[in-house]
Input
Amino acid sequence: MSIDKTKYCVYLNNWPFVNNKGYLGMCCKNNKVLFEEYNIKNTPLKEMWTSLEIQQQRDILTGGKMPVGCDICFNHEKNV
Output
């Protein structure tokens, strides 16, 4: 079974990204989306990782659309 690369992101699906201020983000490459309501100082990592906001971003991707800030990877994949 192969994964459709246009509908799957290893960053968004395999591990959470927490920036150096403790806020949840989409990934280390996406600096346009930051979920400031989630901070590692006061929210458990599991809760952040399974949050509605992150799930909505995954749903956008699996729906075949590009989430905000994901143009870096989308453009790279087009050229590969």
Remarks:
- The longest helix spans residues 52-62.
- Residues 25 and 33 are 6 Å apart (CA to CA).
- The mean pLDDT is 88.
- The chain has four helices and three strands.
